[in-house]
Amino acid sequence: MNDDRPSRTEGESRVEGKFQIDRRTALKVIAAAAVVPAVFSGCEPGESDPAAPVSPMRNLLAAGTPTDPDLLATVIPWDRSLTKHELATLAVLCDLIIPADKHSPAASSLGAHEFIDEWVSAPYEGMQKDKVLVRGGIVWLDGEANRRFGGRFRELTAAQMVEICDDICYGPDAAPEYQAASRFFDKIRDLTATAFYTTKEGMADVGYVGNVPLPRWDPPPPEALRHVGLS
Amino acid sequence: MSKARPEYDVIIVGSGAAGGMCAFVLAVHGVKVLMLEAGRHYDPVSETPMFQLPSEAPLRGGWTPEKPFGYYDATVDGGWQVPGEPYASSEGTNFVWWRARMLGGRTNHWGRISLRMGEYDFKPRSRDGLGFDWPMTYEDLVPYYDKTEALIGVYGSNEGLENTPSSSPGVLLPPPAPRVHELLTRKVCTEQLDIPVIPAHLAILSQKQDSTRWPAELFPNNPLAQRVVRESMESRAACFWATPCGRGCSIKANFQSTTVLLPPALATGNLTIRTDSMVREVTVNSRGRATGVHYIDKVTRIDEHATAKVVILAASACESARIMLNSKSSRFPDGIGNGSGLVGKYLMDTVGAGVGGQFPQFENMPPHNQDGSSELHLYMPWWLYRDQAAGKLDFGRGYHIEFGGGRRMPGPGAFGGLESYTNGAYGLRFKQAARRYYGSFMWFDGRGEMIPNDDCYCEIDPEGVDQWGIPTLKFHWKWSSHELNQARHMQHTFRDIIEAMGGTVTSTVQDDGAKAIAAPGQIIHEVGGAIMGSNPNRSVLNQYCKSWEVSNLFVPDGACFVSNADKNPTLSIMAIAWRASDYLIKQMNQGMFA
Fold first, then answer.
1. Is residue A2 very low, low, confident or very high in pLDDT (cuts 50, 70, 90)?
2. Whole-prediction pTM value?
3. In-domain check, residue A230
4. A37 in contact with B at a CB cutoff of 8 Å?
5. Do A36 and A98 lie in a common domain?
6. What is the pLDDT of residue B6?
């Protein structure tokens, strides 16, 4: 968390009178002004490295609490809980689900396995349930790898990994002994997809071309209208 | 009670649609106003995360109990629960109450849908014998609808459909071109189902406002008002068709109280805002007149008193009712202005129900930008007035349809359901499926009129108190068959639309309205609780939102609503608040509050 954040003191959040500009507010306004022209000049907003600190800005009005987080300088206020081995196994699994191709990189290179760690470590009820499912699933995966091939899952050949995944990738078709594992696989697939497609690389892969300021709003292009039988 | 002169002309409790509008109108007319806001100061210009990707937020921006509409939603210290400020419900009631503890309140994150109530909507009882008539007509409110739309900026068109009013010429900004899924929906609905699909009205600047025309037209012979309105309009940019309105808008292209009403009000020098100030009660003197309010300074946790000649409650329907009920004195043992016993009564929300679908036509769509305004471009107004009048429907009032879909920015949960479309694809086959199905899903949501009934109300919870020592609310709720049958009708209509378009329903179509209907409060259109009327025994306020019993107490927020037409209430709240403010100024000039 931001230990150097100025604590909220009496009077700071007041608007007494006419938005009197104190030193902190002045800093905030200057910081905002530094960003706005970039927007208008058409800079691509998604082009920064997503792993880098999001923004040098600090919102001095936000309390930095869970109900009032600083939306411009985001932090994840909980510790991660997965082990190195679990993370390495998830990285392999994420890339089986979303591998690299000519359109976009593999999921793990965009941090999908780290996102799953972030997710299952969150202090909320649904995520705590997912943590049990995910950690238990990894134990099962290693056990199954050992039973079939005599090794841990992440050390198998690609063909061996696929052999296991084919048995657990679709609940309705999975054998009774693979039902629980298929729920684990489904969860990992959903979380991997969320992790991947919410990055600029994932958005580009499916052809999302928005989130850019436009000088005007135009009707759909003719090829899109033809695609649905409208002309 | 202190005999000293009041510190202010008017105290306004709350800074959202009603409080913001009253502060603006009063301040530009030279009235000295103190605004008390329970939440913190909030500045959309510097605080809004305009282009941030979900990948930059915890949990990819997904919802949590602390941020129930997602990480980037412009709600501060709020949601379905506010820490330290509980509320209760009677058994069998699942009412939920969305609050936002921030300057501008819920106007910061709202959907911007700005539909006028129509002629029928002001006289519902005269038409079908249910509910109550308003003590005013549509014609009474027309000038204020026009002025509000011109001031805040609303895009849309005039189609001349039944009970779907047109704005005066030149008031609306041009509607944005529809997107592909909207065009196909319009074609199928109009050609095959006889459902009209027309441009929606939203408080978003599709182009810059005419800052030469409007200041003079809105405020003739008022140079101060003209100056601050002109400066405000000039400071707002037109929409650049990117980033969701629900995050707020740093370029002020959409309407938020904090970007459109409060800055010009402050620029007059007549408005003082105190944030972090939680109002507990209205104080009265021996003559039964309001003298001011007690509020808790949330920073010092000390109970303070502010005085004024007039008190305006604009804290939201339920919160204003709560303040009235908590303002007990020997003069008003059941709460201020509650001689009728109707404060807290006749709460209404909007009937909500939805169905989703998947559409093969949209698969593998040529990539193009479908962000648009981020909100509705088209909608369907209620269209079955004739069937309803002929008794062919088993519910009394109408609903409109909001719908969307398309190639929106992928968010948390994106492509989460693909396994059922692909028999569990993973690997390259999953990536191909994601490209194919992206943008092929749509949703249809009904927003319908609820008829007020005796079983829907709030009262002071005899056992509840919040962390500021203020007694809390307890809610009671019971839908009538009108609402439940309407929700079922929505479900069937949406299934018919989806199937007529060649799509497949992706959610469960409910034949039981009770299973389809959103929880009361969930649509966040709660109104009523201090209804206006023409009979002091059967209403709390007169048609100008003034208490029948306390001649210097006004409640111009959603609490004054007599009915809750399917039209989303925010625009009407602002028009009613402007009309109430004009009346207040007139009375003040006549020396009524001296």
1. very low
2. 0.92
3. no
4. no
5. no
6. 87
Mutate which of B37, B53, B274, B302 to disrupt the A interface (most A C-beta within 10 Å)? B53
Q: Six-digit token pair at B104?
A: 């501008």
Residues 52-81 of A with CB under 8 A from B: 54, 59, 61-63, 65-69, 71-72, 74-77
Which residue in B50, B59, B428 is closest to A99 by CB distance?
Answer: B428
Predicted confidence (pLDDT) per residue in B307-348, tens digit:
999 999 999 999 999 999 999 999 999 999 999 999 999 999
Nearest to B546, CA basis, from B218, B280, B290, B284 = B290
Name B107's Cβ contacts closer than 8 Å, sequence gap at least 6. B16, B17, B20, B255, B256, B257, B258, B570
For A37, the domain range is 11-75
A43 token code pair: 């800079």
Pair A187, A91 in one domain = yes
Q: Is residue A17 part of a domain?
A: yes
Q: Exposed, middle or buried, A28 (CB in 10 Å: 0-12/13-18/19+)?
A: buried
Round to whole Å and give the CA distance between B562 and B456: 13
H or E element at residue B525: none
The answer to whether residues A202 and A102 belong to one domain is yes
Is there a single domain that holds both residue A187 and residue A132?
yes
Q: How far is B466 from chain A (nearest CA, A)?
A: 17
- On whether residue A196 sits in a domain, the answer given is yes
User: What tens digit of pLDDT does each residue of B119-161 get?
Assistant: 999 999 999 999 999 999 999 999 999 999 999 999 999 999 9
Nearest to A67 by CA among B45, B64, B53: B64
Q: Which amino acid is at A167?
A: D
> Which residues, at least 6 apart from A43, have a Cβ–Cβ distance to it below 8 Å?
none
The ipTM, to two decimals, is 0.94
